[in-house]
Specification:
It is a single chain. By secondary structure, the chain is of the alpha/beta class. It has one domain (about 35-210): Vaccinia Virus protein VP39 (Rossmann fold). It has helices spanning about 5-35, 40-45, 65-70, 100-110, 110-115, 125-130, 150-160, 180-190; strands at about 50-55, 75-80, 120, 135-140, 160-170, 200, 210. Helix 7 (about 150-160) crosses helix 8 (about 180-190). The chain is elongated and about 80 Å long. The relative contact order is 0.12. The structure holds S-adenosylmethionine.
Amino acid sequence: MSEPRSTHAARGVSRVRRVLAHAEELVAERRDRGACEARVPFLREVIPPAGVGAEIGVFKGRFSPVLLRETRAVQLHLIDPWYLLTPEWHWGRGDRSTVNALRRILGRFRPEIEAGTVVVHIGDDREVLARFPDATFDWVYLDSSHAYEHTRQELAILRRKVKPGGLIAGDDWRPAPAHPHHGVFRAVQELVSEPGWALIHADEQTLQWAVRLPGPG
Ligand SMILES: C[S@@+](CC[C@H](N)C(=O)[O-])C[C@H]1O[C@@H](n2cnc3c(N)ncnc32)[C@H](O)[C@@H]1O
């Protein structure tokens, strides 16, 4: 017995939607890959190799393989709330599902996760970071909400969790006060106004920035 015409048509529509979403995701992935590779000279310049690092704000994990490859981290912690924040990133392109993003990251890094080189943490970064012993990280790459108050709180935790003389780096260096992501610039400027802190890189082209913590002693 053949299925009713309306069911057949509905199946066709949903198949077309799936194909379109997949195509949109491939286009978004290709565009993001270019943006991630553009940060490579920055990583090579500022991040010390073979350390313990973290990416805070992981999204679909597009930058994570580049971070791991370029820094040769002995351990890379990936921190993001994914589905605990929202079922879908309304601002994203392609597949906006946070569950799908996390599923792909777990698959992509399966060997490294099983070996303990990559550790995935699902949660608000302030809560996740608070559980680490002080002076855990040689470096972190901060790329989360970009909101001033949130960034200020993240930096207040990171100043204890990153080793003395270590690095806090990140994305979205936006000096223009009207920019929606200006909060990162503001919070970082406040931090580096303190004695011993140094802004070692800030680039409005690639939007990358890096701060060195005061050294030991
Ligand atoms: C700009 S995206 C990260 C992009 C990613 N680093 C890359 O280069 O592809 C921002 C991410 O921050 C995450 N985020 C938002 N609030 C957060 C929080 N409180 N803690 C950790 N991550 C958060 C979002 O879920 C999103 O995945």
